[in-house]
Design a protein that fits this description.
The complex is a heterodimer of chains A (about 350) and B (about 240). By secondary structure, chain A is mainly alpha-helical. Helices cover about 75% and strands about 0% of the residues of chain A. Classes of the chains: A mainly alpha (about 350), B alpha/beta (about 240).
Chain lengths: ~350, ~240
């Protein structure tokens, strides 16, 4: 009996904390990677990243609708997955266009990073408006295909345990796609000549120029990667939850917190930061009452919800972590650049 | 002026007052030219001007008989001039091997042979090739810096105070390496604070004062010149 209680408690935790946090963390990690790459190579904090994600997701949704109208679907998988590569390409192009129209001018002026940051706020508002113009501010679900890999009811009848475990296909998709994306990105940065030249340019710009590395090319490749990462992150988040432009804007805080906690400018840090923020958010807003009911003897059962913070305050958690890290270790866990 | 790589009558600065006032430097393949002089004489500035990092109001730079005065620094690098800055001269977040690879960024051919050459010239780089360059000691970093610059197989190597901040033993070692490099037929220009040691290995020496050539001559001649000794070499 004791053993089953422990098992039930673990399943409960997996169901409501571990699996959701893993998938949310993967989405944050991909988003934070985009922020950290812009910071490392272009040397500014890109406040437009959340809305870039919204833009990429919007494109993916439009293409998904087009495919669906043709009767093209991916069977058990969401149709958005077929639309994703096209959306990535278009969003990367949109990034290049933004760079050509806006950022290039300030680069040629050799503007301070703070100017770039303010400019990115302007870009954010414009992207924000474009997305609302085209698709509207409403909440949209664009998921189709098979919703669950493991359903709670099936899990219960299969194992005979009272506690059910449900795993959504979007959660597994998120984790798998995020892992593949990260592996490809790290391979690119560590092993290819182009990736190494990006790191070299980020590390020591003057010496990179002296070595013959073409800065325009580095900037171009960076925007292409950033656009693709933002689209993947946005589409995965939208599939898992739903797409609402305002939510994507709000994601800016946890995304920046993830990038900074890990050490901004350091890709490995962005990944670690994504999971740290996600797990903190989910773990601190989860109500542990049932968990303790399984573990503790009946007379010690908690009266309250055993919830540290209401979910309404989940953004406060990223904010607090951000402040603590900036005070104690400003370079982040993996020693990024000091802000 | 003549030579494989030379500049003549350079006048210019960073926008304000002129730092170079009629300065000329020349070097031949397989030779070492050393620029020495007091602080603020414009030694490093002269070198930067030869690399095209400075706006000149007068003067020309020639490489192998060709006027390259209007070339950008990148174009000069591509035409075979390599430069080792005094500071920030390595990619400290990249491994030693990656540093060398980045030095050869413009090359499309096979690098294996050049890597072997570098590793035999600087054995320590082979030993530490997978280590982050930023974790190395001062002397080792300088070897990475010089190695990076040599990866393009340049005709001209310019070194800005390569021995700044390293111990005397490491300094001698570095100078030995520079002589080894010279023997492969590279034209080398060095800006140095340690005037005595530098003139010792120099084929040709230039003493700059206030951006102007004050003394010019063979390294050994300058070392034995009483006036130069008194003014710059401490007697």
């Amino acid at each position: 009996m004791e053993n089953y209680d422990l098992l039930n408690a673990i399943i409960l935790l997996a169901n409501f904390v571990i699996v959701p946090a893993l998938s949310y963390g993967s989405q944050l990690a991909l988003a934070a990677l985009g922020i950290t790459l812009v910071y490392a190579v272009l040397r500014f904090s890109n406040f437009a990243h959340g809305d870039l994600m919204a833009f990429g997701t919007m494109i993916a949704i439009l293409i998904t609708w087009l495919f669906q109208s043709w009767g093209l679907t991916a069977g058990v998988l969401p149709t958005a997955l077929i639309a994703l590569p096209f959306a990535m390409a278009l969003t990367a192009g949109f990034c290049l266009l933004t760079d050509r129209i806006v950022y290039k001018f300030y680069r040629e002026q050799k503007s301070q990073p703070v100017v770039f940051m303010i400019v990115s706020v302007g870009v954010m508002f414009i992207m924000n408006a474009i997305v609302r113009f085209i698709i509207g501010p409403k909440d949209r679900t664009f998921f189709d295909g098979e919703k669950f890999i493991i359903k709670a009811v099936e899990f219960k009848s299969y194992t005979g345990l009272p506690e059910g475990l449900s795993i959504k296909s979007t959660q597994v998709l998120t984790i798998v796609i995020a892992l593949i994306t990260m592996m490809m990105l790290f391979y690119f940065l560590q092993k290819t000549k182009m990736g190494k030249s990006m790191r070299a340019y980020s590390n020591n710009e003057d010496l990179a120029l002296l070595s013959g590395i073409n800065p325009d090319r580095v900037v171009m490749i960076t925007w292409i990667i950033v656009g693709m990462l933002a689209t993947i992150a946005g589409v995965l988040y939208g599939l898992d939850k739903s797409f609402k432009p305002f939510t994507y804007f709000q994601l800016l805080l946890p995304m920046f917190a993830a990038a900074i906690v890990g050490g901004i400018g350091n890709p490995l840090g962005a990944v670690a930061g994504g999971y740290i923020i996600a797990f903190s958010e989910v773990m601190l807003t989860y109500a542990y009452k049932k968990f303790f009911m399984y573990l503790l003897p009946t007379n010690l059962e908690p009266d309250g919800l055993m919830q540290f913070l209401s979910t309404d305050y989940k953004f406060a958690i990223s904010f607090i972590i951000l402040v603590i890290v900036l005070i104690i270790r400003p370079t982040g866990i993996f020693r990024g650049k000091t802000l | 002026m003549s030579g494989f790589f030379y500049c003549e009558n350079l006048v210019g600065g960073y926008g304000g007052e002129n730092i170079l006032n009629d300065c000329s430097v020349s070097v031949n393949k397989g030779e070492i030219s050393v620029i020495v002089g007091p602080n603020g004489a414009g030694k490093s500035t002269a070198m930067k001007a030869m690399l095209g990092m400075l706006k000149l109001s007068q003067g020309k730079v020639f490489l192998d008989g060709k006027d390259i005065s209007n070339f950008s620094p990148q174009d000069r690098v591509a035409s075979g001039i390599s430069f080792v800055p005094q500071t920030m001269n390595i990619f400290n977040e990249l491994t030693v091997k990656e540093n060398l690879e980045m030095g050869a960024y413009l090359r499309e051919d096979d690098l294996d042979e050049t890597f072997e050459e570098m590793y035999s010239l600087f054995p320590i780089l082979h030993e530490k090739k997978e280590q982050m360059a930023g974790e190395l000691s001062g002397g080792q970093r300088q070897q990475v810096a010089v190695g990076r610059a040599l990866m393009t197989r340049p005709n001209v190597l310019m070194l800005d105070e390569p021995t700044a901040g390293v111990s005397p033993v490491v300094m001698d070692e570095l100078f030995d390496k520079i002589i080894d490099i010279k023997k492969t037929g590279v034209a080398i220009i060095i800006v140095e604070q340690n005037a005595k040691q530098a003139l010792n290995i120099a084929d040709y020496g230039y003493v700059l004062v206030a951006g102007k050539n004050k003394f010019t001559g063979k390294g050994s001649e300058l070392l034995n010149d009483t006036e130069v000794r008194k003014a710059f070499l401490g007697g």
